[in-house]
Specification:
By secondary structure, the protein is mostly helical. 79% of the residues lie in helices and 0% in strands. It is built from 26 helices and no strands. The protein is globular and about 105 Å long.
């Protein structure tokens, strides 16, 4: 039996390593987004500062480990065998949940997930325990669950959302009022003091407040005081010395080496926030396995049956070996540097907080539109009540300046003033919570601080506000979903293991592995698609030849996709093959989505291609005709699927024969279109036009045949409407395809002439 539970402890630590990897991939956004978004330093410097912060912060986690052991449930009410079921259910659920969010690039809270997983698993095991004893769940559940502490943790997490957003918005407003967007002049006078104050605040909360409960807080000094006691008694001295020292150091660096003050603040802030992250969130990844290991040690020493050994020892004080904390920190550092999923999550937050306009990831929603409308009306009322001079003066402080070309990879998403406020504010809030041993969500805090500073910085203007607010609500909605999924899945897993037997543990571990592997393939597929789109996008460095190649690729892809969608759609409809018709719909949706993205980037593209009016005009036409082709395919294929999906009567043999011949004619037409575009044989367009006209004549003939069938009452109304729709949309498809090729010809012609 001892060997079996030893295996379970090993499984717990194996799951912990996986959890560290998927957890850091999610939480890296918390301390990287400000430095990366502001381009404060090369990435290797940012990663170095973050890595050092993680390693130092890992040693601050010891006090937080108590949350996993006794923060959610009363351990003395459970036996060793039951505790192991709870811990395994938590770790399995956590890996699946976090990996799913990482795959879709959505930041979620590792703290919320671990709290609700512990709660769900503990409730499930408690219910089984109570029912087995013949008791009442309603009357006895409170004996097992630490409801007071759990509610305090949950309310603290939810409150942190409001507090972080509000504090971030207020601090950013007054900071921008002091420095404005053209902060160079004011930075000469206030920069050193601002930097000294910022780093002093970090020093205070990270070294004075954060030291409480750390692994070295109880070390005794020569005076007999512990480090924690010394820090408490000398707080004011440390603050004054820190402020004076940092102010002088920053000013000297500026005078002697011309160092950018804000860059120093951002890098120190990145270190501090990474440190706070490791101090607060390491418990989310290794707290449960460490508690499981401690439980195993206590059980082995007792010699009692696992079903009879009470886990009351978990309610006492405990410490985690420093080597475990540092090893966990090293795993987090390696993941931070190499994880592509971490980069995907970071992009989501930077996209929502960037200063410039561009492609918005999220659509608009009714609540976002309502909030923007209400805010605009309130702002108008407030402006009317303010003196004109004051209003204009404040407005000038918040007038943004260009940070570089829009959507250029080297253009910062926001300036270093905002990055500094993000980091310092979030660090302070997280450090306060860590010192109070409240496991608030670092993701919630950093995300909401970033959103609050974006609001104050007027990054959410009338062009982007509804989309950014919708994005924020989408992320927050994901947070609530995290809690629901974590509680439910962890509870179900714990319940099934408790009822079905211990062998189900290994079944669920296998399921977790399979799901992680599956999401990894899904992520790679999404990543490859995004890379392909980036390669096809126009860049400023592209010469005339490169521009023509990319435009040609767009047209070639549109022609190939159109032919495939049309042929697969019609043939599968005639064969009543629902699976293939669904494939045609998926191809149609992909073409529609791609053409929509290309059109949404038209402003950015036109600003990058050669500055010639006719060249830009013909490119716009190329994009427009691609969209029209996508629309025609949608109006053609969707009714076919609905007809088949509703099990209506198939077309007659005569109709099927006509449509099959039409497929052959269009296949021949699009093959020739492909030849014209690929080889730039634009003198063959006249022949293409002739083929198009011949197909249209054929369509007229099939329409007449359909009218004859109607007259002889061989077809019904639904059949006729669908048949005429196919003919109509096919004509539109042919017209737009020819126009696309002509527009591409003109684009190439004028690009060549302009490039000479």
């Amino acid at each position: 039996m001892e060997n079996f539970y030893l295996v379970l402890v090993v499984v717990l630590f194996a799951l912990a390593i996986s959890d560290l990897i998927v957890g850091v991939s999610n939480d890296a956004v918390n301390f990287l987004n400000s430095a990366i978004g502001s381009k404060a330093a090369p990435k290797w410097v940012i990663f170095l500062m973050a890595s050092l912060g993680i390693l130092v912060g890992a040693t601050f986690s010891n006090g937080m480990m108590e949350v996993a052991r006794k923060g959610i449930f009363h351990p003395d009410q459970f036996y060793f065998a039951e505790i192991m079921v709870i811990f395994l259910a938590v770790m399995i659920t956590d890996i699946i949940l976090l990996d799913m969010f990482n795959t879709f690039g959505m930041p979620t809270s590792t703290t919320v997930s671990i709290v609700f997983e512990l709660l769900g698993a503990a409730v499930a095991v408690s219910i089984v325990k109570i029912k087995t004893a013949g008791g009442s769940v309603v009357a006895e559940l409170y004996h097992y669950i630490n409801s007071e502490k759990a509610l305090a943790i949950i309310s603290g997490i939810l409150l942190s959302v409001f507090v972080a957003f509000t504090v971030g918005a207020i601090v950013m407003y007054f900071t921008r009022l002091l420095f404005s967007f053209e902060y160079g002049k004011n930075l000469k006078y206030f920069g050193s003091s601002f930097g000294g104050l910022a780093i002093t605040a970090i020093t205070y909360f990270m070294l004075i407040k954060g030291i409480k409960g750390s692994s070295f807080a109880s070390y005794a000094l020569e005076s007999g005081e512990t480090i924690q006691e010394w820090a408490k008694h000398n707080t004011l001295t440390v603050l004054l010395i820190s402020f004076a020292a940092w102010t002088v150091i920053i000013q000297l660096l500026r005078w002697i080496f011309k160092i950018d003050i804000l860059k120093v603040i951002v890098l120190v802030g990145t270190f501090a926030l990474a440190m706070a992250f490791a101090g607060n969130d390491l418990v989310n990844f290794i707290g449960v396995p460490v508690a499981g290991f401690k439980s195993f040690q206590a059980w082995v020493a007792s010699g009692v049956s696992p079903e009879a050994f009470s886990m009351e020892k978990l309610a006492g004080k405990s410490s985690t070996p420093i080597y475990m904390l540092l090893l966990s920190g090293l795993i987090m550092v390696v993941t931070l540097i190499f994880s592509k999923k971490a980069q995907a999550v970071t992009k989501t937050e930077i996209n929502l907080s960037r200063q410039s306009e561009g492609m918005e990831r999220f659509g608009s929603s009714m609540i976002a539109r309502l909030m923007v409308r209400s805010s605009l009306n309130f702002n108008k009322s407030l402006s009317r009540s303010m003196p004109t001079t004051l209003r204009e003066s404040v407005s000038r402080r918040f007038t943004p300046i260009s940070l570089g070309p829009v959507n250029h990879p080297e253009t910062p998403a926001f300036d270093k003033i905002r990055a500094s406020v993000n980091l310092v504010t979030a660090s302070i809030l997280i450090a306060i919570a860590t010192s109070l041993k409240l496991p608030l969500s670092t993701t919630y805090v950093t995300f909401m601080v970033a959103m609050g500073t974006s609001l104050s910085d007027r990054a959410w203007d009338r062009e982007s506000a509804v989309y950014r607010i919708s994005g924020v609500f989408a992320v927050i909605g994901g947070w609530f979903l995290t809690a629901i999924i974590a509680f439910t899945v962890s509870g179900v897993v714990a319940l099934l293991i408790s009822v079905g037997g211990k062998f189900l543990i290994f079944v669920f571990v296998a399921i977790a592995i399979l799901m992680v592997v599956r999401t990894q393939f899904l992520f790679k597929k999404r990543n490859a698609k995004a890379n392909e789109e980036e390669e096809e996008a126009f860049e400023e460095k592209d010469g005339a030849e490169k521009v023509m190649q990319k435009c040609k690729k767009h047209c070639v892809n549109a022609i190939i996709s159109t032919n495939k969608v049309f042929s697969v759609g019609i043939e599968s409809f005639l064969q009543e093959n629902r699976t293939d018709l669904k494939e045609s719909i998926a191809l149609k949706d992909a073409l529609n989505s791609k053409s929509k993205k290309i059109k949404s980037k038209i402003f950015d593209t036109l600003s990058k291609i050669e500055d010639h009016v006719d060249t830009g005009h013909f490119y716009v036409q190329v994009v427009d005709y691609q969209r029209e082709i996508a629309h025609s395919l949608n109006f053609l294929i969707q009714p076919l699927f609905e007809h088949l999906d509703n099990h209506h009567k198939p077309f007659s043999e005569a109709q099927a024969s006509e449509l099959s011949e039409l497929v052959n004619k269009l296949d021949e037409f699009y093959n020739q279109c492909l030849h014209v575009v690929k080889e730039n044989k634009f003198d063959g367009i006249d022949e293409l036009v002739a083929k198009r006209d011949a197909i249209i004549e054929y369509l007229k003939k099939t329409e007449k045949n359909q009218i004859k069938r109607i007259k002889s009452k061989n077809v019904n109304t639904r059949n006729s409407v669908l048949f005429f729709n196919i003919n109509s949309e096919t004509k539109n498809l042919l017209m737009h395809s020819i126009n696309l090729i002509k527009a591409h010809r003109d684009f190439v012609t004028y690009t060549v002439e302009n490039g000479k």
